[in-house]
């Protein structure tokens, strides 16, 4: 934004005064003090006065140009429709292109590139990690399986309650009390009860649970010093298949989110 004419006029007047007082051999501190008494809050700072005094001493008295030099500045057409189209095409050709790269190609500042990108409605987001990339065959199988289950559900079969799923969780060696569980009825004048923070125990154990819509069939604790790997998981599934409550069911459907 360009400064107002009044501000420019005040600065030019102060420069003229600085030039005159410099010719009178007045030091910069006194010049600034005298300017402050006349122009108040619009007075330039002391460092500016010193800089202009140095410039005045390099020229003859009354011969110094106190006007600002002409500067081209930033073109007003930098964010026109032509540049918007160029930025849009660059982004569509390379979704990972950087603002610095766009600025070099188009020939504008990075700040203007960011402004145009915001106007175009773009935002840069990270890719979401997924467990693995499915092939077309994998996707087809999943669709067919989902369609079969959906058809069974629409036919009124209560197979959802028979689906057995499993999950793992860490079990600590203590039961921590939540803050709301420590709430008590007290009078207004009664002191507030204190609850000391319990340090969590380092001891914990991995628990694997298998359940369906009616009950839990297997709770399997991981032995100390072992890891949950394919061999350990197969062992848990073997224990599940010989569970009495599960063997009497007709065609159970085991599922797992692991």
From TrEMBL:
Gene3D superfamilies: Ribonuclease H-like superfamily/Ribonuclease H
InterPro entries xrefs: RNaseH_sf (IPR036397), Transposase-MT_Hybrid (IPR052709), Transposase_1 (IPR001888)
Gene Ontology MF, one: nucleic acid binding
Entry protein name: Mariner Mos1 transposase
């Amino acid at each position: 934004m360009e400064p107002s004419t009044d501000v420019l006029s005040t600065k030019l007047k102060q420069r003229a005064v600085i030039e005159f007082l410099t010719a009178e051999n007045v030091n910069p501190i006194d010049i600034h003090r005298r300017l402050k008494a006349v122009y108040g809050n619009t007075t330039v700072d002391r460092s500016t006065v010193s800089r202009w005094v140095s410039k005045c001493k390099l020229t003859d008295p009354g011969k110094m140009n106190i006007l600002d030099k002409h500067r081209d500045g930033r073109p007003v057409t930098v964010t026109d429709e032509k540049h918007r189209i160029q930025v849009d095409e660059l982004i569509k050709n390379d979704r990972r292109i950087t603002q610095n790269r766009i600025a070099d190609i188009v020939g504008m500042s990075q700040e203007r590139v960011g402004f145009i990108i915001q106007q175009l409605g773009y935002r840069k987001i990270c890719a979401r990690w997924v467990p693995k990339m499915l092939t077309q065959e994998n996707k087809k199988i999943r669709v067919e399986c989902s369609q079969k289950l959906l058809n069974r559900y629409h036919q009124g079969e209560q197979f959802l309650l028979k689906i057995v799923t499993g999950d793992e969780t860490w079990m600590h060696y203590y039961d921590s009390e939540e803050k709301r569980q420590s709430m008590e009825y007290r009078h207004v004048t009664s002191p507030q009860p204190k609850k000391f923070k319990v340090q969590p125990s380092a001891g914990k154990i991995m628990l694997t649970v298998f359940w369906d819509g009616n009950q839990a069939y297997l709770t399997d604790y991981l032995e100390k010093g072992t890891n949950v790997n394919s061999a350990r998981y197969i062992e848990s599934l073997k224990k599940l298949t010989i569970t009495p409550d599960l063997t009497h069911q007709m065609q159970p459907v085991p599922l797992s989110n692991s």
